[in-house]
Amino acid sequence: MILEYVRYQIPDDQTEEFEAAYARAVESLRESPDCIDFELARCTEEPDRYVLRIRWDSLDGHMQAFRSSELFRAFFTHVRPFVGAIEEMQHYSPTAVAGIGNGEPEPPSLYEWAGGRVAFERLFARFYESVAVDDLLSPLFADKHPDHAHHVALWVGEVFGGPTDYTDHRGGYENMLAHHIDKAITEAQRRRWVDLLVDAADEAGLPSDPEFRAAFMSYLEWGTRLAVDNSQPGATPTRHAPVPRWGWGVARPWQP
What one-character-per-residue DSSP string does 59-115 give? Predict the structure, then answer.
């Protein structure tokens, strides 16, 4: 990833025309597979100064792929009148110095949003009631521990940002992996597992907002597909890893 900065000094009587030209030109950036994002900012203290920031996937993505494309030719057609006003046009590589300020509060974890320990215990108690009478899944859990539902609640709670109880007291990732080795889980069983857990989430009263359910389903799909792969005879899964920590992903919780 590379950052391009272009600094302009635009006469007062041309600023409106300049911004209009860029509003048209950036359509080419929107279409470019090498452009990640862009922003044109105007200086508050010196309103005749502008900075264009473009984040490219790579230096070659900008200088070779984009610059040799029809998109660039369309882009340049709009901004050509202002090339003489450029004071700087350089590429910058990000450094390790980066972070988020306190002005952007962190959203609650998925664990907190769902209702904490009580919600996950309720979810998996209901889920394993359904599993016990399901012809497709019950054979997989015929030898499960009496506290199996509680243990899985600890695992998923930790994944969703809750306490690290599964790591601290149940053996973490390695223990969860051991429960899947050589089980030969089928795609039909995986899909039924997901379906029953989604039903249990509804019945247990977990949040139904689209943002939470999108993150919830994202983990179910990822986790169950990984479990299927790891459970096949002869599979060579990663043996040592931390418990994954799942976040909101693209859609953060909506709050008025």
Answer: HHIIIIIITTSHHHHHHHHHHGGGGGGEEEEEEE---S-----TTSPPPPPHHHHHT
Asked if the model's pLDDT at residue 256 lies above 70, the reply is no
Dihedral in degrees, nearest 10, Cα atoms 121, 237, 234, 144: -10
CA 185 to CA 165: how far, in whole Å? 26
- The answer to whether residue 9 is domain-embedded is yes
- The one-character DSSP state at 232 is S
Number of domains in the chain: 2
Q: Is residue 103 part of a domain?
A: no
Element (H, E) at 127: helix 116-132
C-alpha closest to that of 81 among 21, 167, 161, 7: 21
Mean pLDDT computed over 22-41: 96
115/180 same-domain check:
yes
The CATH code of the domain that includes 86 is 3.30.70.100
Please check whether residues 121 and 87 belong to one and the same domain: no
Provide CB contacts within 8 A for 121, sequence distance 6+.
149, 150, 153
The backbone region for 96, taken as left when phi is positive above 0, alpha when psi lies in -120 to 50, beta otherwise, is alpha
Quote the pTM value. 0.61
pLDDT per position as a tens digit, 60-101:
999 999 999 999 999 999 999 999 999 999 999 989 898 777
pLDDT at 188: 97
Report pLDDT for 142: 86
